[in-house]
Amino acid sequence: MAETSCAGLQVLVTRDPGLAALADVAWGVARVKVVSPAVVTLHVDELHQAQVYRPADLMGTAFSAEAVTPGTEGELVAFFDQADGERGSAFAERLRSLARDGVLWHRELLRDGAGHPVALNVWAMDGRTLNVAFLRTASHPLEETLARQLLFMLKKLARERGAQAVRIADPYMSAAAKAAAGSDGFIADESGFTAVLVDVCGPAAAVSAAAAEIGNRLGRVMPALDPRVPPEIASVAERVWWPVKLIDSALPSFIAPIRPRWSTELFDVPAMLVPRADVLGISREHVYYRSPGGRGESVPARILWYVSGGGSRQQGKMVIGCSRLDEVIVDEPDTLFSKFEHLGVYGRADVRATADSSGKAMALRFSDTELFPAHVTHTRLTTLAGKLRLPLPLTSLSKISNALFQAVYEEGHRTP
Predict the structure, then answer these.
(1) Mean of the pLDDT values across residues 2-20?
(2) CA dist 370 → 5, 352, 367, 406 (Å)
């Protein structure tokens, strides 16, 4: 170790367990890393691809995501060591072993604004399944919210990779993550938790066929859906089999205009120059306020978000994504603000300004916002509505046909 340090080197590679046991001393005294041959390539990769290990902001908040740096596994024990029989040394060694595995495991660490580790997930692709070997959350005021967001992020990641299922096989999964998985459509079995992803926007027949095909691959029976299923059943199916969209169901669709100022804070579109509030940015649930007015609002439903521009410039006007509409409440502005302040971006005065002549305002509670890879411009939106010979109301929250929703949704996911 002394020779390594005096030679101006920083890494000592050895299989000697005696030297390995002194790794902390070597680092503390001489800033020499003692590593096994198996992890040398990871350290070389760290040097050549340092950007992978640099933190990136998470959803525009002060939270950040980064790769677990080789050699730091032991430092995470205090944050993610679960009390259900797992020793800290076993946790660290299993985390290290995945880095040495022939499978390309992605070890991702989330930190809060103060730099403290708050969540850990390790995943790899196996054909059409995204396998998760670690899913841990640390004690934090937003632990439950982080767990729910982490599951949604894994689903979105799996979809981007063409996966049809997410399987969590962490035997010591954190309690918050287990609770979140149970309410998010993950089914528990002897191997862990599994969620099915049905990436179809279409009629019940097409959805059922795709689900059956996935079920056959996974060895499980999937329920068939009938056309015109009630909104409640369709909404549950769209949550459990996300990102599926049942177009011939009775689930209604709406479009809501939102000014860029508010879409920036709610959705980080356009992106903010300063971090969003942590509670708002990490949550899967949000609230937006409107003036009440019988536009056929009903829940559950789907909602498209149309960012309205200032002045007459059309290029700034576009549909950026969709959400699941969970609740519509009409009440006194102060009552709504007190109930939903942590989920919305309006101040008390802004909520009061949405009130109508009766003194009431409307709160739209929505969840699981899906931002489109390709924004649908005003010009393209008008063209789609014209082809379907359908009206296109954009001045206020309005009900639209499911056919128009499907056209816009598919346009938002078009590939170049």
Answers:
(1) 86
(2) 51, 29, 9, 14
